[in-house]
Amino acid sequence: MFILAFETSCDDTSVAVFRDRELLSLVTVSQIAEHAKTSGVVPEIAARLHAGNALSALDDALSKAGIGLDRIDVVACTGNPGLVTSLLVGKTVAKTLSETLGKPLVWIDHIEAHMFANFLEREERDIEFPCVCLTVSWGHNEIYFWKSMFERELLGETMDDAAGEAFDKVAKAMGLGFPGGPVISKLASEYDGPFRGIFPLVTLSKDSLDFSFSGLKTAVKREIDKRIGAFGNPRDTGSSRAWKSLRIPEDSRAPLLSTEDMREIAFEFERTVAEILSKKLFLAAESKGVKSLVLAGGVSANDFLRQTIADRASAEGYRFVAPVSKTYSQDNAAMVGILAYYRIRKGKGT
After folding, report:
1. How many CB atoms lie within 10 A of CB 249?
2. CA-CA distance, 229 to 154, in Å (whole number)?
3. For residue 158, what is the DSSP state?
4. Are residues 200 and 257 in the same domain?
5. What is the three-class DSSP state of 30?
6. Which residues constitute the domain of residue 174?
7. What is the rounded CA–CA span in Å between residue 114 and residue 141?
8. What is the pTM of this model?
């Protein structure tokens, strides 16, 4: 069975081809360069770029897989959630191909696909049920009690900003451009001072499994404002080197912080986010009496978050899995295809 999968929920145009559960090709066209100009994703621009990239990505994916459209048995596509205009492009292409080829079309839930990214390059038995899964991305944070492959219960979700969005907004406040996650992590890794806990560990109530990052984001902004001007213009010798190493465009540089300030704020922020996320994950696991943990979503690519969870899991006897590749953590058509495969195999329909 050959599966052709599409993912266009936000700002990456991605196409994958599977032979059963074997990934034959994955082609993802990034829009980061365009959205960096506006320090965020503009839905209309994203949709236009998807429309321009979809067919070439399709051709590349089929070529790399070594098959033609006539070999495709199933078409799969992200149906929701996501940016409506971006989703529409992928859905239009997928539906057109499905009808033209006379092949079934499988609509895929974006968040569920992120969870199933953990099955890529793994055996089915490698995910132990029941387990607790933390999904954390730009627009969403949830904790699920994952009872069986296609049975899950929502335990907690974000009440305002998601963690990925908070990374972007903090980076923007420091004049670091878009996307914020990679640049914040890079700066944090360069800080060699102690963790002082200068930002609040917002956990809501004691037993709450919901998330709120708006207060943390505001606290970071206040800290930035407090430090602005203390070390002069960032085009001084030390800061200039930092801007160049981070590849920040000249017109994005703002007279904000010294290099060391940027590093410390990034360090404190990243560790506070990781502590909040991991604390909720383990609290959920304890409440459900499970010893199996899963991490999914774009922010699962964050090295510090992965290591924080992995270290505690090892110390406390939990089994922990995250996507085997950072490519699979990000939005990609491979996660769409693998979910479609298991839906068909387990008789969950098209």
Report:
1. 10
2. 45
3. B
4. yes
5. strand
6. 127-323
7. 12
8. 0.89
